């Protein structure tokens, strides 16, 4: 509804590398939500293997890193191109570590690093830039030790090629570029603007990236022995410096310029940084190693809050709402719209079912109004303008995005009659505002909202109809 180019003519929301992987995967396994979930589970497994592989190959072997692996409990979400970009980014860090550990320039290592840097940037610009910066700073540490400029060659080449290709596309295919930019304007990356951190955003940082906070606490001890720590070349230490500095640049940007959800982009490198803190404690601060492990365990408990909620309360929510039952409900609720052009808003998890059924006018529940022109009643006004006949929503979308707009519409019974049918047997944590940022649930149970519109309407800034 709000993307006249990329929403109707071409699909250019992101650079197309992830879409290519998704296309091949769904050609093999079918275009379904379960297939998409399995794809992202596979991508996560590859990223996890790369993360632990870097620790095993380039970090001191004498250190016990078992507590580091527990930080994987922090991963409870994945359905975006970033999951592929992590693989390229971690591959870049692997090749950076290999390049640093080799005394001479090797063309094959440099060429591989150049390739994965470009692949990462063209899969997710923010994730690609983060890993690009972390690798570049690690190489800068090596330059301080060795004064060898060849370590920068892949990064300079990748930056130049990325700029040239992007400029070429913008000039030769202006429609492609316009489609990409219209999507970028709708995303929070370009609409948030500078803002002071909100309390909820700070809590998200503490829960998601506690190891980076621990690194700040450790800085005074590290500064006191900096000559000893940085007197000799070390691959893992170079990686740690690059990850820590670039990680905090991203985290600060997330809290002040971008969307706070981007703090999750540091989670794989957080595991590498935690391994570095353990190695530092054992090598240079053995008297503090015990406290370091206890602090990391505290960090594990923080990042595991959602995992704990999903495996307890979440399982209770999912118990009586299977995927098969939900598909049967979707066939019933969306069936009438296979012959009608009336719009129906559908959560992303149910769009696969809508496409399979042949629903004529399904609209993603996130994109029925212009996010770039946000007003107090943008959501309510968008519903009134579109006049969807039905909403088929996940518990997440209903409680976090639609309860308030629907409540505003209820105040105008002369305009629309609303009936909500929530098929969840167990009340999900999303239904409790105080827990929405803490606990997630696992439930296929949809929320069906029937809307009987009287006539077209628009609400003014005070919520009055006109």
Folded structure, characterized:
The chain has 466 residues and is mainly α. It has two domains: 17-303, no CATH class; 314-453, no CATH class. Helix content is 60%, strand content 5%. The protein has 21 helices and five strands. The protein has a five-stranded mixed sheet with strand order 2-1-3-5-4, sandwiched between helices. The two termini are 22 Å apart.
Write the layout of secondary structure elements.
Blueprint: H1 17-29, H2 33-58, H3 66-69, H4 82-101, H5 107-121, H6 125-146, H7 153-172, H8 174-186, H9 188-191, H10 199-208, H11 210-224, H12 226-229, H13 235-256, H14 267-284, H15 289-303, H16 305-310, H17 313-318, H18 323-334, E1 344-346, H19 348-357, E2 362-364, H20 378-386, E3 390-393, H21 395-410, E4 416-422, E5 447-453
Helix pairs in contact: 2-4, 2-14, 4-5, 4-6, 4-13, 5-6, 5-7, 6-13, 7-8, 13-14, 14-15, 18-19, 20-21
Q: How many E strands?
A: 5
Radius of gyration: 25 Å
Classify the beta-strand content into a percent band.
5-15%
Give the strand line-up of the largest sheet: 2-1-3-5-4
What are its keywords?
2 domains, 60% helix, 466 residues, mainly alpha
Provide a compact summary of the structure:
Helices cover 60% and strands 5% of the residues. The chain folds into two domains: 17-303, no CATH class; 314-453, no CATH class.
């Amino acid at each position: 509804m709000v993307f006249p180019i990329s929403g109707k003519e071409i699909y250019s929301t992101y650079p197309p590398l992830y879409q290519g992987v998704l296309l091949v995967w769904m050609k093999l396994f079918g275009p379904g939500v379960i297939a998409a979930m399995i794809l992202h589970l596979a991508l996560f497994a590859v990223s996890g293997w790369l993360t632990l592989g870097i620790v095993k190959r380039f970090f001191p072997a004498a250190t016990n890193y078992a507590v580091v692996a527990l930080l994987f409990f922090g991963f409870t979400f994945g359905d975006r191109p970033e999951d592929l970009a992590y693989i390229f980014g971690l591959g870049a860090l692997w090749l950076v570590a290999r390049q640093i550990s080799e005394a001479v320039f090797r063309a094959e290592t440099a060429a591989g690093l150049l390739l994965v840097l470009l692949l990462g940037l063209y899969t997710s610009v923010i994730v690609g830039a983060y890993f690009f910066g972390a690798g570049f700073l690690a190489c800068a540490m090596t330059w301080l030790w060795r004064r060898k400029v060849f370590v920068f060659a892949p990064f300079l080449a990748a930056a130049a090629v990325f700029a040239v290709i992007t400029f070429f596309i913008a000039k030769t295919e202006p429609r492609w570029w316009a489609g990409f930019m219209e999507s970028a304007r709708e995303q929070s990356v370009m609409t948030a603007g500078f803002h002071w951190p909100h309390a909820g955003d700070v809590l998200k940082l503490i829960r998601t990236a506690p190891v980076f906070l621990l690194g700040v606490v450790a800085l005074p001890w590290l500064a006191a022995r900096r000559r000893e720590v940085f007197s000799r070349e070390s691959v893992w230490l170079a990686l740690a410096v690059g990850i820590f500095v670039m990680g905090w640049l991203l985290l600060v940007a997330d809290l002040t310029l971008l969307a706070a959800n981007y703090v999750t982009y540091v989670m794989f490198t957080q595991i590498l940084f935690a391994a570095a803190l353990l190695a530092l404690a054992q090598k240079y601060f053995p008297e503090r190693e015990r406290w370091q492990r206890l602090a990391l365990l505290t960090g594990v408990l923080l990042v595991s809050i959602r995992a704990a909620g999903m495996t307890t309360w979440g399982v209770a929510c999912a118990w009586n709402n299977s995927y098969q039952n939900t598909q049967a409900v979707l066939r019933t609720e969306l069936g009438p719209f296979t012959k009608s052009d009336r719009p129906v808003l559908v959560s992303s998890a149910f769009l696969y079912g809508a496409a399979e059924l042949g629903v004529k006018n399904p609209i993603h529940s996130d994109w029925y109004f212009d996010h770039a022109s946000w007003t107090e009643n943008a959501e309510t006004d968008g519903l009134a303008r579109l006049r969807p006949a039905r909403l088929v929503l996940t518990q997440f979308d209903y409680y976090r995005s639609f309860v308030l707009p629907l409540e505003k519409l209820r105040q105008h019974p002369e305009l629309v009659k609303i009936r909500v049918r929530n098929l969840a047997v167990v009340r999900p944590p999303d239904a409790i505002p105080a827990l929405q940022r803490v606990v997630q649930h696992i439930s296929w149970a949809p929320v069906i909202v029937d809307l009987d519109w009287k006539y077209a309407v628009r609400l003014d800034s005070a919520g009055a109809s006109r």
